[in-house]
Design goal:
By secondary structure, the chain is of the alpha/beta class. The protein has 2 domains: about 130 residues, ATPase, nucleotide binding domain (Nucleotidyltransferase, domain 5), CATH 3.30.420; about 170 residues, Nucleotidyltransferase, domain 5, CATH 3.30.420. The chain contains 12 helices and 10 strands. It starts with a strand and ends in a 17-residue tail after the last helix. It binds 5'-O-[(R)-(carboxyoxy)(hydroxy)phosphoryl]adenosine (KG4) and zinc ion. 5'-O-[(R)-(carboxyoxy)(hydroxy)phosphoryl]adenosine binds next to α5 and α6.
Length: about 325
């Protein structure tokens, strides 16, 4: 069964083709980073216009890379939320048009479901149950996952998402956009213990996260120490900030392991590309004997293979979406 996936929830315009829900035949991602870089963040109106310009070329590229003809397609899936409404509508409308024109089933996919199960596109895939931590630009949520359709939300951010904190702090420090990647790169030369930034919400017995206070504390540090000092110690500042984020994430993850007794962990979403987070997770696996699964970077950041995979599972379960399905900016998982 050949499934097309389309992802356009934010600033990546992506199309992928998947064979039998596992084998990636093509995986095309057009990043809008150059469009948004002058503004230091994603501008929603520019994002939807850029999706509109790129969706057809990206579709054609994905078909060409997979050496596929339109007749080979058995279904088409697209992200229907959460995300930027104008951006979502472009990919969703394209998927509906393809479904209607080819008379093949269409399936709307929750972007977060895509992230959470992207790890199943690789070997080894985790068994159920596992703790699933989604860390992206828009979300920081921890789930106990019993099956593809069975999960319990254990905790989530009360303010900024982890990726948002990376991006906002990078902007404060005058690093380029996208911020997470820049902080990761700069921090490699730095000492993570050079400066002390808070680990918010670590004392109370909650599994929720909070990152806006951490961002404020970097801003205050910048004001107190002055720009020249911070520039001179940029690697140490970014490494120390990054360590505070990673500590906060792993503290809650470990707390959830203790609370649930589940020792299998999946970490996904764009921030799961972070080299320090990945290294600390590997250490947790080696030292604490946890089973840790983190997708390859190309499957952590926004992509359409994860959407095609989720669509495949839905269609196999007989869940077809109506062409009247609308995009939902705040869709919950
Ligand atoms: O999952 P994703 O591609 O899009 C959303 O669904 O939000 O995640 C994007 C987020 C951005 O905030 C970006 O700064 C962050 O992931 N990110 C990183 C790294 N690569 C991407 N954060 C820290 N370190 C990285 N290497
Ligand atoms: Zn995402």
């Amino acid at each position: 069964m050949r499934m097309m996936g389309i992802e356009s929830s934010c600033d990546d315009c992506a199309v992928a083709l998947l064979e039998d829900g596992r084998e990636i035949l093509s995986h095309v991602v057009y990043s809008q980073v150059l469009t948004h870089r002058p503004y230091g963040g994603v501008v929603p109106e520019l994002a939807s216009r850029d999706h509109l310009n790129k969706i057809i070329p990206v579709l054609e590229q994905a078909m060409q890379d997979a050496r596929s003809s339109w007749d080979d397609l058995d279904g088409v899936a697209a992200t229907c939320g959460p995300g930027l409404i104008g951006s979502l509508l472009v990919g969703l409308s394209a998927a509906k048009a393809i479904s209607f024109a080819l008379d093949i089933p269409f399936c709307g996919v929750n972007h977060l479901e895509g992230h959470l199960f992207a790890v199943f596109l690789e070997e080894p895939a985790p068994a159920f149950p596992f703790l699933g931590l989604i860390v992206s630009g828009g979300h920081t949520s921890l789930y106990h996952v019993n099956g593809f359709d069975q999960r319990t939300l254990l905790g989530q951010t009360r303010d900024d998402a982890a990726g948002e904190a990376f991006d906002k702090v990078a902007k404060l420090l005058g690093l380029g956009y996208p911020g997470g990647v820049e902080i990761d790169r700069t921090a490699r030369q730095g000492n993570p213990e050079a400066f002390s930034f808070p680990r918010p919400l670590s004392a109370p017995e909650t599994l929720d996260f909070s990152f806006s206070g951490l961002k404020t504390s970097v801003r205050n540090f910048l004001q107190q120490q002055g720009e020249a000092f911070v520039l001179e110690h940029l690697a140490d500042v970014t490494a120390s900030f990054q360590e505070a984020v990673v500590d906060s994430l792993l503290l809650k993850l470990n707390r959830a392991v203790l609370r649930t007794g589940t020792r299998r962990v999946v970490v996904c979403g764009g921030v799961a590309c972070n080299s320090r987070l990945r290294a600390r997770l590997r250490r947790m696996a080696d030292e604490d004997g946890l089973e840790v699964f983190v997708p390859s970077p190309a499957l952590c950041t926004d992509n359409a293979s994860m959407i095609a995979a989720a669509g495949y599972r839905s269609l196999c379960a007989g869940q077809v979406s109506p062409l009247s399905l609308n995009a939902q900016a705040n869709l919950l998982l």
